[in-house]
Amino acid sequence: MNEGRVTRGQIKYFSRTVEPGLRGQVRRITQLRYRTPTEVAGAVTRKALRRNDKFRLLPFPQAVHIEITNQCNLACVMCPYPVMEREKGMMDEALFRRIVGELSDHRLLLENVAIMGLGEPMLNPRLEDFIVIAHEARIPNVYLSTNGTALTEKRARRLIEDGALGRIIISLDGASKETYESIRIGANFERVMENAERMIRLKKELGRLRPHVSLQILAMPQTESELDAFCERWAPLLGETDEILIKEVDTFGGQVDDIRLDEFKSAKPRIACRQLWKDMSISWDGRVTVCCKDVFYKLEVDRVAAEGDGPGLKDIWRSKTWQAYRRLHEGGHWNRMKPCDVCEEWAV
Ligand SMILES: C[S@@+](CC[C@H](N)C(=O)[O-])C[C@H]1O[C@@H](n2cnc3c(N)ncnc32)[C@H](O)[C@@H]1O
Ligand code: SF4
Questions:
Q1: Rounded to the nearest whole angstrom, what is the distance from the C-alpha of residue 224 to the centroid of ligand 1?
Q2: CA distance 294 to 30
Q3: I need a surface site. Which of 185, 202, 227, 338 has the fewest CB within 10 A?
Q4: CA 120 / ligand 1 centre spacing (Å)
Q5: Of 116, 206, 114, whose CA–CA distance to 156 is shortest?
Q6: Protein residue whose Cα sits closest to atom 25 of ligand 1
Q7: Would the CB of 70 count as within 6 Å of ligand 1?
Q8: What is the pLDDT of residue 34?
Q9: pLDDT in tens, 106-121
Q10: How far is the CA of 144 from the centre of ligand 2 (A)?
């Protein structure tokens, strides 16, 4: 692939969003102007608490995924959704408010909060209301990824005018109708491209910087020959805070077929996975797991409920079960945990 593309400002490789060295520092500093004061204060707080130890356990997770629905209208070929056996449903407002209330208490420790899990978040008709609730609770960096099928003009307008969403990733895997529709089974190429174009056009018309729009293509065998065409098609349309995101396809913790391109396979020796010290994912019905790749909730730690005396997220984060998982990783025994035993995406 053409390395030069990476330096063209708004075209990024997913795995290089946090670049090492001077270039990374420059990038982080220039991006500060798009950060809210809470987001900046949070980054400084986490750094101070961690004291250069990546595995120091902070009082609360840094990245949280809230799956407001696990229903989907597509069956994409690289996604675990089509083989998911969990019961399907939508998160209700009471549970969402309960979760957000606790996140708000610890917002200085949060880097970002994704309003999605496995499934299509825009299928939850309360999505826009939930984003506003999170914003009013001053949750930093609220974002989501959508397949774009339900991103109508009305919904795009509301997402922009509310100004509550930090970033929207629109999944557009392919530059041609043939490729896109062979990957994103059930979607219509023309309609989704029109929805994405309208989103960035409306933002410009309304003079808004938020939400930042990331037009995402997964780098995989089916799309590899279309990456340049994808960039050429979208780059001229981008607004100031928009970007093209080339994300490498992965195995979702070893739970889907491995179709990664060779250049993205790592030969590094495996170590404890930092996800267990950073991440928390919550399903639509309140199950809590340790990693966003654990979409089948094999590592479910506990459940959070809208009401009652059950544990809070902070209790679950420091619970015996979660600590036991961390100890297994520290001792190099990740093969005793599923899906960690077959995972290819362990984080450093
Ligand atoms: C599971 S989807 C849920 C959100 C939404 N339905 C969508 O398609 O954007 C979350 C993200 O995972 C990405 N994704 C799906 N399968 C993947 C895989 N095997 N490797 C890497 N990313 C994947 C999607 O492109 C999307 O950006
Ligand atoms: S990638 Fe998103 S749209 Fe495609 S099947 Fe998975 S959840 Fe649905």
A1: 17
A2: 33
A3: 185
A4: 9
A5: 206
A6: 171
A7: no
A8: 66
A9: 999 999 999 999 999 9
A10: 13
Quote the mean pLDDT of the chain. 91
CA dist list (Å): 147 to 7, 168, 173, 185, 308 = 27, 10, 9, 11, 35
Q: How far is the CA of 323 from the centre of ligand 2 (A)?
A: 31
Ligand 2 atom closest to 119 (CA): 7
Give the model's pLDDT for residue 32: 62
Q: Which ligand 2 atom minimizes the distance to the CA of 145?
A: 2
pLDDT at 28: 58
Q: 227 C-alpha to center of ligand 1: Å?
A: 17
Which residue of 73, 77, 78, 81 sits with most ligand 2 atoms within 8 Å of its CB, as the best mutation to test the pocket?
Answer: 81
CA 21 – ligand 2 centroid, Å: 35
Q: What is the 3-state secondary structure (H, E, C) of the chain?
A: CCHHHHHCCCEEEHHHCCCCHHHHHHHHHHHHHHCCHHHHHHHHHHHHHHCCCCCCCCCCCCEEEECCECCCCCCCCCCCHHHCCCCCCECCHHHHHHHHHHHHHCHHHCCEEECCCCCCHHHCCCHHHHHHHHHHCCCCCEEEEECCCCCCHHHHHHHHHHCCCCEEEEECCCCCHHHHHHHCCCCCHHHHHHHHHHHHHHHHHCCCCCCEEEEEEEECCCCHHHHHHHHHHHHHHCCCCCEEEEEECCCCCCCCCCCCCHHHCCCCCCCCCCHHHHEEEECCCCEEECCCCCCCCCCCCEECCCCCCCCCHHHHHCCHHHHHHHHHHHCCCHHHCCCHHHCCCCCC
Q: Note if the pTM is more than 0.90.
A: yes
Is residue 316 within 8 A of residue 288, CB to CB? The reply is yes
Query: Whats the size of the chain, residue-wise?
Result: 348
The pLDDT value given to residue 4: 33
pLDDT under 70 in the chain at which residues?
1-10, 14-34
Identify the pLDDT of residue 23: 55
Ligand nearest the Cα of residue 121 is 1
